[in-house]
Amino acid sequence: MPGRIAEGHESESExxxxxxxxxxxxxxxxxxxx
Length: 34
Description:
Largest sheet: none
Radius of gyration: 15 Å
Number of domains: 1
Number of helices: 1
Number of strands: 0
Low-confidence stretches: none
């Protein structure tokens, strides 16, 4: 079971990193547009 818990935390961390990455891409695009 500990493996499953760690896996869950890992996927949650990956999701947060993905969202952060997308947000950075959006900010970069806006910077180039203005």
